[in-house]
Structure formats: structure tokens, C-alpha cells
Amino acid sequence: MSKAVKSVDSKFTFLFGKKNYMFMALGVVVILLGFLLMMGPDANTRPDGNFDPNYWNEGIFSWRRIRLAPFVVLLGFAIEIYAILLNPNKAKAE
Q1: What's the whole-number mean pLDDT along residues 67-78?
Q2: What does the CA dihedral 77, 80, 85, 87 come to, rounded to 10 degrees?
Q3: What is residue 44's predicted lDDT score, i.e. its pLDDT?
Q4: Which residues contact 38 (CB under 8 A, 6 or more apart)?
Q5: Which of 19, 36, 90, 91 is most buried (most C-beta within 10 Å)?
Q6: Is residue 80 part of a domain?
């Protein structure tokens, strides 16, 4: 008695293409860069690094932290959306 062996054609494929993953990685790097731009001294931290409730640092209202960093984060999210919507099979279809 011979046993019939089923031949299963299970080829592993990724959900996205290589180009998609490259854009996703770029988007994550841009988002992290935006959050790094947002970081800075606390409002009550003196330049020597000590906390002082009577000290106020105007650096928390800098152009970099208020306007540039949120724009960079939103740009990173836009890159992520583009990476998800990018069709990896477009070149093959043409």
C-alpha cells in the first residue's frame, strides 16, 4: 500500500515589495528625526542641568520645536502612507 503525498505549493511572499519596505523605513527615520527635533530642555531646567522652579527657559517656544518638528513628523507619516499605497507590481503590469 502506497500513501499518496500531497504536494503543497506554499510559496512564502511578503505583503509588500522591497520598494515599499524601503519607503517605510525612510518614513520611520523621518518620524524619529521629527521627535528628536522636538526634544530639548525642560521649561524649568537651567543651562547647568539643574531643576529650578523659579527658572523659565524660552527655548521651549523655539521655531524648531513649534513649527519644524511637527512638520517633519507629518512628512514622515505622509511617506508611510505613500509606502503603503505604492503598488509594487506596477512595473510588471506595464
Answers
A1: 97
A2: 150
A3: 75
A4: 65, 69, 70, 73
A5: 19
A6: yes
The grid coordinates of residue 46 equal: 537651567
Residue 42 falls inside a structural domain: yes
Instruction: With residue 72 as reference, give the H or E element that holds it.
Output: helix 69-85
First to last CA, the chain: 51
CB atoms within 10 A of CB 74: 13
Residue 66 C-beta-side C-alpha neighbours within 13 Å: 6
**Would you tell me how many other CB atoms lie within 10 Å of the CB of residue 80?**
17
* CA atoms 72, 77, 78, 79: torsion sign: positive
DSSP bridge pairs for 45: 51
The least confident of 35-39, 72-76, 78-82 is 35-39
Identify the residue whose cell numbers are 522636538. Answer: 38
Task: Yes or no: say if 20 and 88 are a contact pair by the CB < 8 Å rule.
Answer: yes
Which domain range does residue 81 map to? Answer: 18-88
Q: What is the pTM of this model?
A: 0.75
